[in-house]
């Protein structure tokens, strides 16, 4: 089943299942360990953001750890962490900062996934810069999965906001702790910026 249809199912279930029973329902879906279930559960958590912000993020972390696969991290990371960052950046960024030091590599990766989603969907420039600055603190990581997520975010920031990358040009050139992998991702993003940068100029 295609993801958009699964997301539609998640939205329909959100409005049909009583609020107090939604988390019990998502727990049951997650325990089935089917890819489609992660999409549905993530959408239910996403739609609870206004009244259950911290709880939804905590559950998202639990599901990512339990799923223990890159696709679980990416499905949940985009739809929960990424959506929350887009909707409430000031509230989300301090929480995402703690995730960068999480003992689980998938939770670390989810910060990059979230940043990619939020920037792609139009996160305000001020918060894009804050997010990029935050991700730079983890640019020395050598973990494969963390690098993939954070690198994805670096490429997206570079593609849509080359002016922000320009602000950090000196730091990027002189900081020897930044892994070459990330510099490559930034270069790839910049090479595509002529097409995408005009989408979110401010």
Walk me through what this model shows.
By secondary structure, this protein is mainly alpha-helical. The chain has one domain (3-153, 162-193): Leucine-rich Repeat Variant (Alpha Horseshoe), CATH 1.25.10.90. The chain contains 13 helices and no strands. The chain has helices spanning 3-16, 22-32, 35-47, 53-67, 70-87, 89-99, 105-120, 125-136, 144-160, 162-167, 169-174, 180-191, 193-196. It is globular and about 55 Å long. The termini are far apart. The model has no long low-confidence stretch (mean pLDDT 96). This is DNA alkylation repair enzyme. InterPro entries: ARM-type_fold (IPR016024), DNA_alkylation (IPR014825).
Q: Uncertain segments of ≥5 residues (pLDDT<50)?
A: none
**CATH level 1 class label:** Mainly Alpha
CATH architecture: Alpha Horseshoe
* Major sheet details: none
Overall average residue pLDDT: 96
Q: What is the global morphology?
A: globular
* Range of helix content: over 70%
In short:
This protein is an all-alpha fold and 202 residues long. The chain has 13 helices and no strands.
